[in-house]
Amino acid sequence: MYGRKVKLRLFFVTLILITLILTVFLILKSLEENVVFFQSPTEIKTLSELDTNKIRVGGMVKKNSINVNSDEVNFIITDFKNEINVSYSGAVPNLFAEEKGVVAEGFLKDRNFFSATKILAKHDENYMPPEVKEALEEK
Amino acid sequence: MFKIFEPSKIFQITSKAPKYILFLFVIVLTVGLTEALILSPEDYKQSDAVRIMYVHVPSAWISLGIFSSITFLSISGFIFKNKNFFLIAKSLAPSGFVFNIIALVTGAIWGKPTWGTWWAWDARITSMLILALFFAMYLVAWRIYEKEQKVFKITTFITVVGIINVPITKYSVDWWNTLHQPASINILTKSSIHSSMLFPLLLMTAAFALFSLLIFLMKYNTELIKIKNKGLDRL
To answer: Minimal CB count within 10 Å: which of A63, A116, A129, B142?
Structure first.
């Protein structure tokens, strides 16, 4: 139906696409550590050696773990398997709350203690009016 | 092949269409904005900041959609040696680029009160920035190269390379840990957005789609007039 040239051009574009997809896939695969925005407490626990560079830890703020002192906020980030203690001095974002997502940027003191220089609140994919939220909680 | 794409016949339709599209756009936008800014409820957690989402999400969808369409049209144009496909792609690009920028800017405005930062180098946001760069490259390429065959090849190449970024943008929130939340709207599973918020979101998407269509028709008509003026009746 189509001429030889058309088929050749189709083959050419397909070849380029396959090559590019493979290349990008391999690059992203090897860079996975840097593509992720934060690490979970479990990933911190399984680190072979402590990272002294600035890193980010993310997860949920554990229930009843926020402790506000005069100049410091202490809380626990959990991924429901492992936990890490975080200390931070400064203002926290409005959406920072217990049982909500959080990303802390800073330095590891040891495998269980993290000193944050910046706190970001992570928003989840749930959108609903307050009344619906109340109705859900009553259930 | 593609004889139906005679410019004079297309022009008969596309030159009349914009006024109807504009009329429809104004109606849908008015209803959409009223729903999004006044009638829809505030969010239980982020309160009124959720209203930014009604501009942010449709813009992001449309920019991704337009880039995919441009790629499809360019590749088809390249394979079948059809000039019209390239002109449609060229006319689509500006609104895609503008909506991409709108998505980035509204995302930053939303990010400051919710996350606590304007910008984060996470996979979703970075890949969206890369998409904007590809749009910019595509648009600049059309302005730089005078020779038709050359510009067709170069723009096709830009879209073929750039299209790899589209699924990465879409699935970045599922593949990696990102600051950006995962998709709320899923076709196969239940959506995690309440119907009272989904409705204005879809209306705004329709409004933005109509706006893209309007800009596309205006751009495309200009291209057709250029061909007419050159005294060519075939594309």
So the answer is: A63
| Mean pLDDT score, B206-235 | 85
- A123/B160 touch (CB, cutoff 8 Å), yes or no: no
Record the tokens describing residue B131, joined without a space.
């998409």
**Residue B163 lies inside a defined structural domain of this protein:** yes
Cβ burial of B59 (10 Å; 0-12, 13-18, 19+) is buried
Q: B interface mutation test: which of A18, A32, A35, A96 has the most B CBs within 10 A? A: A35
Residue with tokens 């058309």: A6
Tell me, yes or no, whether A136 lies in a domain. no
In the predicted model, what is the mean pLDDT of chain B?
A: 90
Cβ–Cβ contact A94 with B under 8 A: yes
ipTM over 0.95: no
pLDDT value, residue A27: 92
Chain B hits for A16, CB-CB cut-off 8 Å, are 160
Task: Identify from A123, A124, A131 which residue to disrupt to test chain B contact, counting B C-beta atoms within 10 A and taking the largest count.
Answer: A123
- The minimal CB distance from B177 to the residues A37, A119, A121 is found for A37
Total domains in the fold of chain B: 1
Please indicate if any CB of chain B lies within 8 Å of the CB of A35: yes
pLDDT over 90 (residue B218): yes
Q: Do A10 and A47 fall within a single domain?
A: no
Residue-wise pLDDT for B159-194, tens only, equals 999 999 999 999 998 888 888 988 888 777 777 888
pTM for the full predicted model:
0.90
* DSSP code at position A81: S
Is residue A21 domain-shared with residue A77, that is, in the same domain?
no
Does A93 lie in the same domain as A25?
Answer: no
- Pair (A69, A107) in one structural domain: yes
Give the domain extent around A14.
4-33
Return the structure tokens found at B1: 């092949």
